[in-house]
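Hi W.,

Here's what went into the run:
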Amino acid sequence: MRAWLQGLIAEGPFPPRRAVFFRSALVVCIVVSTAIAILDTSEGIWGQHEELARDFSALLLLVLTADYGLRLLTAGFSPQEGETALKARLRYTLSLYGIFDFMAVVPFLVGEAFDLPRDGATIFGILRFLKLARYSPALETLGVVVLNELRPLLASLFIMLLMAIASSTLLYFAERSVNPGFKSVSDAMWWSIVTLSTLGYGDVVPTTVLGKLLGSVVAVLGLCMFALPASILASGFSEEMRRQNFVSTWHLVAKVPFFARLQANQIAEIASLLKLSRAIKGEVLMREGDTGECMYFIVSGQVEVKGKGGTFVLKNGDFFGEIALIERCPRTATVKAISRCQLLVLDARDFHKFVAHDHALLEVIWETARSRMAMDNIQPSGGGLPPVPKA
Amino acid sequence: MRAWLQGLIAEGPFPPRRAVFFRSALVVCIVVSTAIAILDTSEGIWGQHEELARDFSALLLLVLTADYGLRLLTAGFSPQEGETALKARLRYTLSLYGIFDFMAVVPFLVGEAFDLPRDGATIFGILRFLKLARYSPALETLGVVVLNELRPLLASLFIMLLMAIASSTLLYFAERSVNPGFKSVSDAMWWSIVTLSTLGYGDVVPTTVLGKLLGSVVAVLGLCMFALPASILASGFSEEMRRQNFVSTWHLVAKVPFFARLQANQIAEIASLLKLSRAIKGEVLMREGDTGECMYFIVSGQVEVKGKGGTFVLKNGDFFGEIALIERCPRTATVKAISRCQLLVLDARDFHKFVAHDHALLEVIWETARSRMAMDNIQPSGGGLPPVPKA
Amino acid sequence: MRAWLQGLIAEGPFPPRRAVFFRSALVVCIVVSTAIAILDTSEGIWGQHEELARDFSALLLLVLTADYGLRLLTAGFSPQEGETALKARLRYTLSLYGIFDFMAVVPFLVGEAFDLPRDGATIFGILRFLKLARYSPALETLGVVVLNELRPLLASLFIMLLMAIASSTLLYFAERSVNPGFKSVSDAMWWSIVTLSTLGYGDVVPTTVLGKLLGSVVAVLGLCMFALPASILASGFSEEMRRQNFVSTWHLVAKVPFFARLQANQIAEIASLLKLSRAIKGEVLMREGDTGECMYFIVSGQVEVKGKGGTFVLKNGDFFGEIALIERCPRTATVKAISRCQLLVLDARDFHKFVAHDHALLEVIWETARSRMAMDNIQPSGGGLPPVPKA
Amino acid sequence: MRAWLQGLIAEGPFPPRRAVFFRSALVVCIVVSTAIAILDTSEGIWGQHEELARDFSALLLLVLTADYGLRLLTAGFSPQEGETALKARLRYTLSLYGIFDFMAVVPFLVGEAFDLPRDGATIFGILRFLKLARYSPALETLGVVVLNELRPLLASLFIMLLMAIASSTLLYFAERSVNPGFKSVSDAMWWSIVTLSTLGYGDVVPTTVLGKLLGSVVAVLGLCMFALPASILASGFSEEMRRQNFVSTWHLVAKVPFFARLQANQIAEIASLLKLSRAIKGEVLMREGDTGECMYFIVSGQVEVKGKGGTFVLKNGDFFGEIALIERCPRTATVKAISRCQLLVLDARDFHKFVAHDHALLEVIWETARSRMAMDNIQPSGGGLPPVPKA
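Here's what came out:
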């Protein structure tokens, strides 16, 4: 029972089937519940179906409450070393996701019980959306990026503030006598922000010639300066995503015997070239006759290879797809996943850059390829690879 | 006849002349036909020429129908191994481009026959534009990029949604009592989206001091956050374009005997340095006296070299333009394509980085250059290249 | 006394406690003082508290005046070689920050004394904000970037001007007869700038069909062209930030004995991989059981390492966190700063790329790791690192 | 006389003094003349000074005519091999800049002579701005970039068109019955373009719920898709700028004897690290006591080095500034240009990465540095550089 409940909220690459269902149901509940809280602020939107919306909303809340209870319960099942179940539950309650789960249900229930003002219900109803954060790495990644790039971000913020202050002061003096939108520097500041961020609502617009001249300069400068933080965040974000991919690949590489012969620096190099990929049962990974632009290493799971020479099964630690890379020919076999698989994918370009100049590595791949081609009656050409001593 | 029809819709780098004509005519037909369908929604735009527009539109439809018939017919001419002509045609019909071709004509004809509502004619008329997708790699590339970058894209979508929800909730509470544009959270959401995407229509604008303060923060944050997906897509798109270029160059390199002596990892390296270029018959590739910043390898076709020492012809497998790179001098000859050519271009910088430190390669180029310079009576200086054993 | 005063305005990574307080107080004063100057332009904003605002403003001015006096005084305490105290003070007065400090107080005081117009007070009140520039590298960095990238920036400015002129001329001819916003080319120029910078106020909008067509093209081209300077500045800015980081890291590397054995080119390489980090007293740098993705080198300060095998102290020149990188295991100890520390951080990826293939370096790290693991009773596995001769 | 006239319009890095004056005067004339043509379209802007403006304009035209005549004349002075003076002048007349020069004066004069409509005067008056193109590499660079990146640019243009068509069709059906801005697909297209380019004039805005929902999606997608061409152009532009810098540096490197010992691939490597810099007579290149972050190679010109050990002069082929890089100490001398200089600058980071691991190179620099330090009585430390055999 305990295991079943824990499985219900399990995460990781291959959760049990019930976890997939539960998660999907929960995501739908959260989205619908947030949507109802948002729509609820439009008066009379439900028309005569208000009762129905109310009931449906209560039903969703029930699911969210059940989810919170479940997580609180299971948090106590696997305490860390030297921790009581109670302490483990307390740790969950005070964790970020625990607080999000709490906010999704408790304040609302308290509000209902004590007949508190409706605004609270709206706020906490909308905050339910934060429960989704558990399923997306985005918020954590963004946090890391903001911390990493704090200095350049603050620097560009300072520049932006300086520009906003300078441009609103200038426009205030240019327009104050004729334009009510610039009758004080703080009013002009609203125009500055709207202009520098290239929003351009048009509710406040310079009307004098001098104002338009200054406004033009501000517009162009704003375009340049306000791109700084956007660009810092954007490049930091993709760098961080790449780094996370490296770390997860790096740990998986150790599980593939083929890479065991590599030295640490080679592993670090190939780990940044490999891309992690997953396949579900029955997925076709390559089709005979297609152009082949990558090879695969199996981390876990099994695939079925169906070529001219027959059918065989490959499992974790094996690789496939190397023939098309060595021979520059179309795929010579069709490969289908016969269980859930984790795969590491190596591009044609990276294959030749990395693998092909390491004789020991190449020999292993070459030998495998040759024996497979013999099975399919394909004549090896070598595709420009250096000659390898006959096995 | 079969070959003639197949040639009519042939693709690839050098299609027959009739294919070029047919394709151009078809592109014009598609563009004009889409334009007519769009303009047709403006009432009375044709004035008294409505009959003419109707007739012209029918004519265009005829061409598109002919194109569909032609493709359906020829699809059966070259079936894959173990496929009947019928099955090959069915495969075309169900392919993406087959469906686009189908949608361009059939629904319209059906609608005309059965006198269906005019909206359908409008929709399918506009959808004809999709037929152009066949001639642009953009849609496929974009699809690949979106799949490759799915995780970061979804992550940034989540951040955007979170920001939209948070900012509309905040503004709703700040402005709801005085501003009809914020009278519910869903109304405020429209403002949020318009602001976060830096559109700034100005139909809904915060008017209170608190609203403007919050709006300023939202505008600046929006600028930063909404740049994430744009930047992810943009860098993924150019990366994918570069990868496609690598793959096509990599296959062409194998056709140039000069590169045959390279090892696989060197081929992979040079393939990412080379750029593919095409020349039509009569095109002048370099002119004596110009500054020379690259050398060329001929993949297919022939060129005529006219220098001080006379005129000679080079064909596929040969290279030219190396003297200017070695001697850092202006071009010593004028080179003209005398047939359609596929060329691989190597930059000065890449030449020196890659070719010049490989003695074997260098010797070949050097020897060729020396014999050509002898013909033109140019004194070789070496331009900093290491001495090469005399041939 | 002299030293105490100098300490008050000391800068650098670890200023004395009083400098931190003084700086914080000053920043608050500057921000509040600027804010008051801005708000002061809104008539009647203080209501009946005007007297209070006036007094408070005077108080802030007193602090800023004291700061200026202090800086002027201390500038004379440490003159450069062969300089009198007076000359050193004059140098400060004429330096950029000296001028900012001067403008923050003197013009205002002069204005008050001679009853000059209020606009001056507003301007110089707002200019106080520039005093903050001392605490942000942003302005200097931006200046360097603009100088470095002057040629491409001017080039893109020229393109932008050309586009603005061309598009306003075109729209002027298309719209002049019907649209008052385009009744001269200079009027149309305002529309051009607002459109090309994607502001789109909407105060002037083309209304004819031709105007809208041209406007569409201008909008799309503007999007492309006006991204040029933004992108040049943004990439220059992050490049410059990275360069500044390199220079400061490069100087610190020399202080870590561990790096003394490296050759100059290796130092230059690792200096661009290391990131500078600071820790305050009591900060926990890593926690036992966490995933470990970097190792640390101590430049200055002391840390306490608490593992299973006991507690020990590391000081400047030592490193820690290497076990998790070599063994790919979670952290085996908790590390806390017991004084203010400057640390150099090396990423897992960079560790393996740089350190692991240098046998001499690796041996040092490996030996330390092994002796520490022995203390904690951890069995070394090697994590793919090459075998090292037993010590 | 001929030489004097040719010198007047000379270009290149160090033109004679009269060329600098002439160019400056011409730029001012062009800018003012264009400005007058623009302002001239505002009726009554000159008030009673119309006569004056007319006269001044005629004066400027005289200068431009003189410039055209001068260029036409001097074009015949230095014909290419086997070309008559007339043919050389014709070549200039038909060159791009020749046409710009022609358009700046001839059509206007013709117009005046034959009393042609005023619009022509306006157009050709504004087109004078194109004469400036001669002094900016921007237009040429942009042309090269657009040609280089034609395929991805067209691909993204296709995506943009597709999005504009799809979104205007969708919004047309959503809004046509209630919103006059969407009463036909072509009307909706205006909204699409304005929205997809994030302009957001606000003249046409969706008003229905469905319209706003679709509009939100279009806004976000537009943000992503319309960043593609901007990003392609921006990265192509800076890549091209970098490439142009490489080519000019690469040619200059050959003039510095110090680099003569390098092999071609090393030259190509260092040429992409060096930055070209120019100094006018009297400019101070470094000041004793400053932090030193780069060293200089003199391509042409002379500098004066003033250190503790005395003053000496360096000329083309020499280098300076190396001590601060080797010793990581502040500058030990002040260096001033005593004639116009072309310099190649090498960064600290690049110095250590490139120079320091090449023993032969290092020895030369080291020896020079040691002898200079001996003169200034500085004790060499070596700064982590490998020991060099005593000279």
